[in-house]
Specification:
The complex is a heterodimer of chains A (about 110) and B (about 350). Chain A has about 110 residues and is of the alpha+beta class. Chain A has a single domain, classed as Beta-grasp domain (Ubiquitin-like (UB roll)). Chain A is about 15% helix and about 25% strand. Chain A has two helices and five strands; from the N terminus they run ββαβαββ. In chain A, β1 and β2 form a beta hairpin. The longest helix of chain A has 9 residues. The radius of gyration of chain A is 12 Å and the shape is globular. With about 350 residues, chain B is an alpha/beta fold. Chain B has two domains: about 210 residues, FAD/NAD(P)-binding domain, CATH 3.50.50; about 100 residues, FAD/NAD(P)-binding domain. Chain B has seven helices and 25 strands. In chain B, the strands form eight sheets. A five-stranded parallel sheet of chain B has the order 6-3-2-10-22, covered by helices on one side. Chain B has a four-stranded mixed sheet with strand order 1-9-8-7, with no helix packed on it. A four-stranded parallel sheet of chain B has the order 14-13-12-18, covered by helices on one side. The chains are: A alpha+beta (about 110), B alpha/beta (about 350).
Chain lengths: ~110, ~350
């Protein structure tokens, strides 16, 4: 079992250092929920609601966006160049040390 | 005043299945939902997505599941108040509750079952200055009556199915339709995208992409919008601005009903999913208890147990036993009867 470290800045600016398993088919949205951070994940992870939008703060190379994610972000609010949907980023060992910030609720 | 036995708030899968379980106990149900159609998230957000963890269905589309649930409960003749949000609850001296919607529709029942999922779906509002000032003064997040737009100028914003569908529909109603979207690509059904493309060529839809509405103008009502395209601001005269950016769930007024709330969910007793207010139950995704899982199948279980207690509240002292539908069949309130064919006993000579 390999766990990686992720730093998540919540909407109040508090940084949470969490351990995320790489062998449970989890994504960033699910990791946030498992630590009871305020991420709704309304659509359950189908890139259909943008409630798990986050900003990537570190320079990790993350898999490119699929069309669905890109289209959803094009309709979301508070979108920046480093915006991603947490539900579309699977936890892999390459993401060790990842730093993200939760986007405001909309 | 609409009167019923169990008033269900939320017409998602859990609320719809409650109709069936209540019907077996000869209890009538009425459902209130903020959305204009039943089905909740399943029909609003992901009707075409397959679900794989409904027992007995290796795969079922979310929209099909809610259609089936409506069909399953049909003989118990549920009532519906759709497109209205349950706003207030008042306990009466006789122990019943009166629930009033945002449009003033009143419902009375001895039992209230909140099956509100993540809450009522509210439109997502774009971050444009003074947009709330223009609400109902030219800014509309839902299209209730398309005739309002006849021979008017309309600007629609958004890139999903509803933006495309309404742009197509209003192209024949409004005097001018402008569709603004941040990208050239749209996230909608392929034939809708093709239709918009054709209407653009015919000059019936003015397509502005990649662009964004950034300002609203007008003294008392919307008179124009400013659109940012290629770094330049352009003014478009219009009578209406319709932002269609989807819906997001909010617990809303239920949060002020005096219920014990924990992390946006209603705390319940797992004996029968009753809340801290006797007679008010919370089932499905809207509730929380130790070990809670937000799964449709758990909502079905909760609805079933809840109905047993609802029966006792509605019929105090009356005896009843749980019956198997395979044995007793189903007697609908509409006079229909479903039952297994009788076993034929015949000797073979």
């Amino acid at each position: 079992m390999v766990d990686i470290n992720i730093k998540i800045k919540d909407r109040e600016g508090v940084i949470h250092e969490v351990l995320a398993p790489t062998d449970m088919a989890m994504n960033i949205m699910e990791v946030c929920k498992s630590y009871e951070l305020p991420v709704e994940g309304t659509c359950g992870g189908m890139a259909m609601c943008a409630s798990c939008q986050c900003y990537i703060l570190s320079d990790h190379s993350i898999s490119d966006m699929e069309d669905e994610e890109e289209a959803m972000l094009s309709e979301a609010f508070h979108v920046k160049d480093n915006s991603r949907l947490g539900c579309q980023i699977p936890i892999t060992k390459e993401l060790h040390g990842l730093e993200i910030e939760l986007a405001p609720e909309s | 005043m609409i009167k019923t036995d169990i008033l269900i708030i939320g017409a998602g899968p859990t609320g719809l299945f409650t109709v069936f379980e209540a019907g077996l106990l000869k209890l009538r149900c009425h459902l209130i939902d903020a959305l204009p159609i039943p089905g909740g998230q399943c029909s609003e957000i992901y009707p075409k997505k397959p679900i794989y963890d409904i027992p007995g269905f290796p795969e079922v589309l979310a929209g099909k599941l809610t259609d089936n649930l409506l069909e399953q409960g049909k003989q118990f003749e549920p009532g519906f108040t759709l497109g209205e949000r349950a706003e207030t609850i008042d306990k009466q001296e006789d122990g019943t509750f009166i629930v009033t919607t945002n449009r003033g529709t009143k419902h009375q029942a001895p039992v209230v079952a909140i099956a509100g999922g993540l809450g009522s779906f509210e439109p997502r509002k774009p971050l444009i200055e003074k947009i709330t000032f223009y609400e109902d003064k030219g800014v509309e997040y839902f299209i209730k009556d398309p005739e309002v737009y006849r021979n008017k100028k309309v600007v629609i914003s958004g890139g999903g199915d509803s933006a495309l569908d309404w742009a197509i529909f209003l192209a024949d109603v409004a005097s001018e339709v402008t569709l603004v979207h941040r990208r050239n690509e749209f996230r909608g059904a392929l034939d809708s995208v093709d239709t918009v493309q054709k209407l653009k060529i015919l000059g019936k839809i003015n397509l502005v992409t990649p662009a964004e509405v950034i300002k609203l103008h007008g003294e008392d009502k919307v008179e124009a919008v400013s659109v940012l395209k290629d770094g330049k601001e352009e003014r478009i005269e219009t009578d209406h601005f319709i932002p269609l950016f989807g819906l997001s769930p909010k617990l809303g007024p239920i949060g002020n009903w005096g219920l014990d709330i924990e992390k946006n969910a209603i705390k319940v007793d797992t004996f029968d999913y009753q809340t801290n207010i006797p007679g008010v139950f919370a089932i499905g995704d809207v509730n929380t208890y130790p070990g809670k899982l937000k799964l449709i199948l758990c909502g079905f279980h909760e609805a079933t147990l809840m109905c047993q207690s609802a029966f006792k509240i509605i019929n105090p002292g009356k005896k009843h036993v749980m019956k198997y539908t395979t044995v007793s069949g189903i007697d609908g309130f509409d006079g229909s009867r479903k039952e297994a064919p009788k076993v034929v006993v015949k000797s073979i000579i």
